[in-house]
Amino acid sequence: MVSSGDFCQTRRVCGVLIRIDSVTKRYPDGTVAVDRLSLDIPDRSITVLVGPSGCGKTTTLRMINRMVEPSEGTILLDGRDIMRQPVNTLRRSMGYVIQNAGLFQHRTIIDNIATVPRLLGWGKEKARERARELMGRVGLDASLAKRYPYQLSGGQQQRVGVARALAADPPVLLMDEPFSAVDPVVRKGLQDELLRIQEELGKTIVFVTHDIDEAVKLGTMVAVMRTGGRLAQFAPPAELLSEPADEFVEDFLGADRGIRRLSFFPSAGLELVTAPVVATDSTAEQIAARDTPDAPYLLVTSPDGKPLGWSEPRNLTAGEIDPAQLLSYGRPFVAGTDSLRAALDCAVLSPTGWAVAVDADGRVAGVVSQQTIAEAIRGAHKESTSEAKALR
Amino acid sequence: MSGFFDIPSDLQHSWLGLIGLHLREALLPVLAGLVLALPIAQLCVRFRWLYPPVLWVTTVLYAIPSLAFFVVLIDYTGQTELTVMIPLAVYSLVILVPAIVDGVRSVPQETLAAATAMGFGPLRRYVQVQLPIAVPAIIAGLRVAVVSSISLVSVGTLIGNQGALGNLLADSMFYHRPELAVNSVVTTAVLAIVIDALLVGLRHLLTPWMEDTAK
């Protein structure tokens, strides 16, 4: 468990915006949806509530904007008890994104987005101006402004949902399984978009999902909840993967948490080699010079440095290299930006066992063997363990 | 020999005059029914337990024949248009309450949750979100109510010639002019069809946001 003090030191984001203090929700029939839950939700970051269905994650989210009122305990927003604030004022200060978007089907896209500014008393033109600005921000074409929700795809509708939630520039964004109803490709796009928007806007986001991969990808902090509305673990995703608090969390994380944890290790430290790289316009001497026993294969690139494929040196004749004859190089990773997981994935996919690293423009930066990646992983593990010890 | 559109003088109206009278007697009750149905429906949506008894009472009212209504009402409102219109208003109410309740209830849960989360109070949510989305269901109800009201007005003939176009039916017997009966039936039918078409047009006008399934 990381206290907020540690959090400030390690993440450089400070302060708690929402403090959930031993909150219980008990329904009249005796069902307990949330059981003495305490969470400090840090400012300007994404906190994910994740757990199986019936774990009380949505109830918890809805207690933050009082759509569900807690039976016991208090919730403080920026130090003030939410129960002492006018309910509609409170709600208008929090953006809300819901599964299937929940758009107003009888209003145009632009008027959907302008809803909260209009409720806050902005003029029609000013609200629409703001809505147009937000359409750009969430990646919606301006030509969609006058359309109605039924004319949009599920992914586009969800973008409208996000834009609508951001319209009045609220400090808090509550997101209730916003991306679960769209297909995996669209979902990935929406997740990347959310991370990008968050980078720009720095909102305090509380995000509910049942998908642990989504939680690990998006969360600055992840709260794993278990059936009965109790907190199982509250930790940054890397710590969740390396040190699950108990068997339940471990089970919930799934089988390949070791591999997934590699997502949090940067590939920046990987030692890339450029020796086994030749261009299609290389001379016979250059090819001969690259032919060394420790690199049984050479990576052939186009004259401007884009990767083309692997080949054994003896199959390469200067001046007549045919790209169609080369072995596929799998998928390259971006040196420095991508994680060790991406690098390992490339090495595993590559038929030669070597991963191809490219720079931001797609030109080959070097190649790296599985052995080198394995060493980097061992190094990274050692480092993170000693860091974790230092934190205690 | 009198023409098809020559109306006997005892009715004190021209053909067009009868049409105007018929529309007034048919449409005013529907309007009254709608005005009453809206708040009743909202109460039924708000307090779920209220809907079954309301539905029960309205169904019983619908089962009362209009003649029986007239007999009771004549003591109070006499042989007037009002006596015809009160039962028609009740019938409209019976059709419209379930139509509005079902329409309002058909608004998706996540749309309602989103509205609440954005800070809509209950009244604002009803007027700005639930009612507009229920418009297609409400108009579907109005179409049934209007058409049945237009046909039922004719029964008013029985209480002192308050049946507008229906009065032609009785006159066709008194004066042995069968063409009056044809006139009555055809005109009433055409009126119903035209008003129904107008309502369909109104729905298209009010709901540009609906997917056009006819295409």
UniProtKB/TrEMBL annotation, chain B:
<feature type="transmembrane region" description="Helical">
    <location>
        <begin position="133"/>
        <end position="160"/>
    </location>
</feature>
<keyword id="KW-0472">Membrane</keyword>
<comment type="similarity">
    <text>Belongs to the binding-protein-dependent transport system permease family.</text>
</comment>
<dbReference type="GO" id="GO:0031460">
    <property type="term" value="P:glycine betaine transport"/>
</dbReference>
<feature type="domain" description="ABC transmembrane type-1">
    <location>
        <begin position="19"/>
        <end position="199"/>
    </location>
</feature>
<dbReference type="Pfam" id="PF00528">
    <property type="entry name" value="BPD_transp_1"/>
</dbReference>
<dbReference type="InterPro" id="IPR000515">
    <property type="entry name" value="MetI-like"/>
</dbReference>
<feature type="transmembrane region" description="Helical">
    <location>
        <begin position="180"/>
        <end position="202"/>
    </location>
</feature>
<dbReference type="GO" id="GO:0055085">
    <property type="term" value="P:transmembrane transport"/>
</dbReference>
<feature type="transmembrane region" description="Helical">
    <location>
        <begin position="82"/>
        <end position="101"/>
    </location>
</feature>
<dbReference type="InterPro" id="IPR051204">
    <property type="entry name" value="ABC_transp_perm/SBD"/>
</dbReference>
<keyword id="KW-0813">Transport</keyword>
<keyword id="KW-0812">Transmembrane</keyword>
<feature type="transmembrane region" description="Helical">
    <location>
        <begin position="54"/>
        <end position="76"/>
    </location>
</feature>
<feature type="transmembrane region" description="Helical">
    <location>
        <begin position="26"/>
        <end position="47"/>
    </location>
</feature>
<dbReference type="GO" id="GO:0005886">
    <property type="term" value="C:plasma membrane"/>
</dbReference>
<dbReference type="InterPro" id="IPR035906">
    <property type="entry name" value="MetI-like_sf"/>
</dbReference>
<keyword id="KW-1133">Transmembrane helix</keyword>
<protein>
    <submittedName>
        <fullName>ABC transporter permease subunit</fullName>
    </submittedName>
</protein>
